[in-house]
Structures are given as structure tokens and as C-alpha cells.
Amino acid sequence: MKLRDVLHAHLKKNTRVLLRVDFNVVVKNGRVLDDFRMRQSLATIQFLLEKGCRIRILAHLGRPEGRRVSTLSLRPLERHLKHILGRRVIFISNPTSVRAYRDFNNARDILFFENLRFWKGEERDSPAFAKALSRWGDIYVNEAFSDSHRTHASIVRLARLIPSYVGIRFSEEVRFLGRALKNPRRPFLVVLGGAKVSTKLPLIRRFLDRADRIIIAGAMANTVFFLRGMEIGRSTAERDKTHILPKALFSNPKILYPVDARVVRYRAIASSAARVRDTNAIQSQDFIGDIGPRSLEMFYREAKRARTILWNGPLGYTDERRFEGGTREFALALSRLKSFRIVGGGETVGVINRSGLVKAFSHVSTGGGAMLEFLMGKKLPGISALKS
């Protein structure tokens, strides 16, 4: 897939660059707790600074639904970026303000705009909102692959108003994910975890034709067990979606499921002692928190055989840190392999980042929903806008 890359743009000194980034990070008490997503944009930021460009950063945080929410302000992110870069950053509280434009349009410092989702026009892909943003830039660069499945003004409409390019990280995402889709070295293993099997159904169908083996774990596996009439206790599952799930599909011999699990008492998920049970011996008051040791060993055996591994979604209930163990141990095992390994999904990447294993993988994707839609073969609006 050919996209206009910022590395090949004709940039002049003082070119004003509207840089759309993915800074949708965890903020608590005004502090950024995990800046992994922010750091993925640094290569493009540094490149633009070296070219003498004037950078204007566009981003969002959370779902404020078109209104100002103080806890979702980007001011903590602006301060954090200033700390990372060691240079001045100016915060623009209202990018649609005529006065702000008059006062700061010619500033040489980095401008950091307030949360775009504070304005209803962002999520509505408003022509007027996109036009107001476009006056701040000579060119547009999309470095937010993870948001490019959304038809929002800063992703789609803005990209069609001024010359547009993809950022360095965005280009890598498309290249690595495309490689896994088009020409994977075999055996090809796909590992799917997380909560919702219903949303990943098209992906499972697609990879049953392309992959040599698929592992389904996490709450996705719980739903399949429930579909088969197995006891899953009080575990997380899509009990109301089993009518849309084809039972025969999940009996395909290419698919592997956990054979044991770490369970706790449902009424004391955070505090009760975990025990290991076979997945065919779960009791009515059990809550499945994580995969068990035999499952981990079985999954690792499959991984050692593979030459290409694509992993999206945690293997356990990562809302509770105590159930991250299976995901962390599997990531550690994969980090020792020499195969081509791609991992994505916010919760999975969070565990890998906290474990210090990001650099041990061939590629760690910032995309969650965007990664899945790309792998399903869907056209991402953000990519279509850049190609038009």
C-alpha cells in the first residue's frame, strides 16, 4: 500500500505542520502514567524539528462527547511532552479562536491544542471545524494510525483540505501489518484474546483461511465454552451473543483453546486465593481470571513452531493486575524467539510495556480497533483520506 510519507515531503524551514497524534494515554491526578503512545510519535516530531518546521499538535483524550471535561484536558500531556522534549511548548485552549490564531500562528515553538473532542465538530467530521483547524497549517501529517478507523474531522476532513502525509510510525504500522497479511512466513500463528469474540468474528473467519493455527483465549474463550454448554461459572463472557456465533466455526481443528485456568471466587475477585482448574471442571461460583500453566505451555509449544506470530488481546482478565501473569509470561516466552512477531491491542501492549519487553518484538502496534479493522481488510477512513 503506497502512502505519501512525510520523509519524502518537500519541507521548508518554517513550514507549519498540523501533526495528528495518538496521545490517548492514562492520566491520573494530572500525571501521565504510561506514555508509550506519546513516545511513538517522537521520531516524527524530531524529524520535523530538524527540518525547521513549526509543529502544531492535534490530539484527543477519552470521550468528552463535545463538551469540556476538566479531567480530560490535554494540559498534563502538554507538560509531559515539554518534559520529554526539553523545550518550550505552548498550550492553545481553543484552536477555533481568532485571537489565539492572531497571537500564536507565527510562533516558532510547538503549539499543543486542547482536546479536539471538546468540540462536537470533531466526531461529526464537521467541514467548518476542519476548516478552522486547517488555517493553522501548510501541511497535515497523520501519526495516529490507531484513530484512523474513525471518520473524525482531524482524521478525514482535514486531510483533504491541505497537502497530507503519513508519519514515520504510521508508515511502519501499515508496512508491518501488511507483511503479516500478504506474505507471512509459515507456520503462521494467530493469537486472539480479550473480551469480545463477536467483534473479532470476521477476523477469525479470515485467518482460518490464512493462518496455520489460531489460539483463542481470554473472555473470548469463555464465550466459546458457554456456547458449547460448558460451565464457566460467573466468568466474563458474551452470553447474549451466542445466537450470532456459528458453533461449527469454533470447532475447527485449527483453533486451540485453554485447557486449564486460574480461577477465584466470584464474590471476592480481588482478594480470594486463585486455584487452577481444568476448563471442563469450572464450578458455578468460579470466576476465570487467567490461563493455567498447562495452557501456557501448550501455547508456547505452538509459538516455537511458528515463523510468523500475530497477537491481539490479553490472555486473562487484565482489569485486575493479578491476572496479568499469563499474558506477561507468554510475552516473555515470545520475546526469546527469533520469529517475526507482531503484537497489538491496548491492554496487551500495556502489559508488555510494563514488563519492559517492547523492544523484544518485531513490531508493537499502537492500534486496537484500527489494527483489527486493517487486518479484516476494511478500508480505514484515515487511510482513504490520505490517498484521495
From TrEMBL:
Q: Which residues cross the membrane?
A: none
Q: Which domain of life is it from?
A: Bacteria
GO terms for molecular function, please?
ADP binding; ATP binding; phosphoglycerate kinase activity
The entry's substrate-binding residues are 22-24, 37, 60-63, 117, 150
Q: Where in the cell is it found?
A: Cytoplasm
Looking up HAMAP family in the UniProt record yields: Phosphoglyc_kinase
Q: What is this protein called?
A: Phosphoglycerate kinase
Name the protein family: Belongs to the phosphoglycerate kinase family.
Residue numbers binding ATP: 200, 345-348
Q: Which UniProt keywords apply?
A: ATP-binding, Cytoplasm, Glycolysis, Kinase, Nucleotide-binding, Transferase
Q: In which pathway does it act?
A: Carbohydrate degradation; glycolysis; pyruvate from D-glyceraldehyde 3-phosphate: step 2/5
Q: What class of enzyme is it?
A: transferase
So which residues are the signal peptide here? Answer: none
Keyword presence, ATP-binding: yes
UniProt EC number: 2.7.2.3
Note whether Transferase occurs among the keywords: yes
Reactions catalysed according to its record = (2R)-3-phosphoglycerate + ATP = (2R)-3-phospho-glyceroyl phosphate + ADP
Q: Among the entry's GO cellular component annotations, what is one? A: cytosol
Q: Which InterPro entries match?
A: Phosphoglycerate_kinase (IPR001576), Phosphoglycerate_kinase_N (IPR015824), Phosphoglycerate_kinase_sf (IPR036043)
Q: How does it assemble?
A: Monomer.
Q: Which organism is this entry from?
A: Candidatus Adlerbacteria bacterium GW2011_GWC1_50_9
Q: Name one Pfam family in it.
A: PGK
Residues binding (2R)-3-phosphoglycerate = 37, 117, 150
A Gene Ontology BP annotation from the UniProt entry:
glycolytic process
